[in-house]
Amino acid sequence: MPTARQGSIHLFRLAGVDLFLHWSWFLVAAFEINGRSKSYSSLTWNVLEYLALFFIVMLHEYGHALACRQVGGKADQIVLWPLGGVAFVNPPPRPGATLWSIAAGPLVNVVLLPILLVLGFLSRSLGWATVMPNAYALLRAVAFINFLLLVFNMLPIYPLDGGQILRSLLWFVVGRARSLMAATIIGFVGVAGFILLALWIHSVWFGVLSVFMLLNCWGGLRHAQVLSRLAKLPRRDGFACPWCKTAPPVGDLWVCGECKNAFDTFQTQAVCPYCAAQFPVTKCLDCGELHPVSEWIAPAVAAPPL
Questions:
Q1: Better pLDDT: 163 or 134
Q2: With bands split at pLDDT 50, 70 and 90, how would you rate the model's confidence at 6?
């Protein structure tokens, strides 16, 4: 998965979110535009069609980012690349917050559906098919692209939006770790289907998508295993992550970056007991956020009156 530091160009910053475009987008754009050169009378319309795809994907990803920030999460980067877009969202580790952060992306496409349908109806009524065939074909193509993106993203295959929505819904019932485990297992089944489809229709594009989803399912499965082990560990009293409010687990779970030994950072106040290295921030193993140990002190809870 690309990041803002791996071959991406910064386009602009809007609503506190930086938008990046991966360099490979231009190569795929040139290939796709040339491949559909017969759809219009001029190549300019093919370029407009691909720019429309860019715009729809951008709106979709901004839906994720803004919804995540609405529930108190962090989202400040979006990367667009040939396989679509990636909004780097980090919602609070709660099922409701995660569900809204993920569902807001497809909801953008849902909102666009009636708008594009009305425009299509008006263009047909005005006789664009005869008077302006290129504009009419472009409008139809954009409507189809939006619908196709919505259907594809809603497939219950992790890490697609549908798979992550399924995971969020299961989270309410079976918890964080088991919901991710179930979503990734279902995702592996979906990936197998995509691989068979790619072989059947001899599609390199579907093959690349299959590899992307397979790697994400494997990463999700390993993360679920880590979350499952963390859930079984005792928690340390008197400390809580400043962001997700979760008490840290007890044990030698933090690794010193200098001597590579594991230790319990809360037991030693972020000082390695082996090499005396001191760490300015400590990572929350539940949400991944970094904060100084001094900020982890949980406020004392007043005893109830007798």
A1: 163
A2: low
Q: Does pLDDT of 2 surpass 60?
A: no
CA angle 67, 177, 109 (to 5 degrees): 30
Whole-prediction pTM = 0.84
* Residue 289: pLDDT band with limits 50, 70, 90: confident
Q: Which residues contact 158 (CB under 8 A, 6 or more apart)?
A: 164, 166, 167, 183, 184, 186, 187, 190, 213, 216, 217, 220
Within 8 A by CB and 6+ apart from 210, the residues are: 191, 194, 195, 198
Question: What sections of 71-203 are H helices per DSSP?
Answer: 95-125, 128-131, 133-153, 161-174, 176-201
Q: Which amino acid is at 201?
A: I
For 159, 173, 198, the CA distances from 187, given in Å and listed in that order, are 8, 19, 16
Contact indicator for 78, 61 with CB cutoff of 8 Å: yes
What's the CA gap between 197 and 216, in Å, rounded? 19
| Side-chain half-sphere exposure of 299, counting CA atoms within 13 A | 4
